[in-house]
Design brief:
Layout lengths: L6 H5 L8 E2 L7 H18 L5 E9 L2 E8 L2 H5 L4 H14 L3 E7 L7 H13 L4 H14 L4 E8 L8 E8 L8 E12 L2 E13 L1
Parallel strand pairs: 1-2, 3-4
Antiparallel strand pairs: 2-3, 5-6, 5-8, 7-8
Helix pairs in contact: 5-6
């Protein structure tokens, strides 16, 4: 059976950029990587997961800059910027580093794979109908101007005894064409029947 390569990893260094920009001296790469992972987990734990699509970390010595890409920047920033200030203070206590945090708005959340996957997962946790959810998300993405979308939900859908996989594909998703701008994301829905996996591929045309 053919296996799918990660669309982001496939295009890294060609069309896509890394989500972490830093260098480490010989022997200290592992420490830097662990800190990077801890920072991401800390941010996701302290923010609503449906608000964050991507986290980009820039490190130069002790200077750390973090850019949060969000579909709802207002709720991340908070009233008069209080949300960002509290987050910055919490990160200083946790990592003993001054962190500069900025937020960038995602203008069309319906066309962002990560936000679509999380939205479907959250509604599955509320026992929504999987087929209706997939159709709604798919047509919203196409209406927003994307070239194509593919959604996969797998697990005990609707509390069924036997796990199954539901697919939806609208438009075109050329995974092997390097110049195609493909976004991929996955999310998990924690239900009383167990985990349901959600995968989303979105094609935004060519770079």
């Amino acid at each position: 059976m053919g296996q799918k390569v990660h669309p982001l990893g496939f295009r890294l260094g060609v069309y896509e950029d890394w989500q972490a920009h830093w260098f480490a001296k010989k022997g200290s790469y592992g420490v830097g990587l662990l800190e990077d992972i801890k920072m991401r987990n800390f941010l996701l734990a302290n923010l609503d997961r449906s608000e964050i699509a991507k986290i980009v970390i820039d490190k130069a010595g002790d200077n750390v800059k973090i850019v949060l890409f969000s579909g709802r920047p207002g709720s991340v920033i908070g009233k008069k910027g209080q949300g960002i200030l509290q987050l910055r203070d919490a990160m200083y206590k946790e990592f003993n580093k001054q962190v500069d945090i900025s937020v960038q708005e995602i203008k069309v959340p319906e066309a962002n794979a990560q936000l679509v996957a999380i939205s479907i997962a959250e509604q599955l946790e509320k026992r929504a109908n999987v087929k209706k959810l997939m159709k709604k998300a798919g047509f919203a993405a196409i209406k927003s101007g994307t070239k194509g979308i593919k959604i996969c939900c797998s697990g005990r859908l609707g509390g069924a005894e036997i796990a199954r996989i539901e697919w939806l594909k609208l438009g075109s998703i050329p995974l092997h064409t390097l110049r195609s701008h493909i976004e991929y994301a996955c999310a998990e829905a924690k239900t009383t029947y167990g985990l349901i996996g959600v995968k989303v591929w979105i094609c935004k045309g060519e770079y």
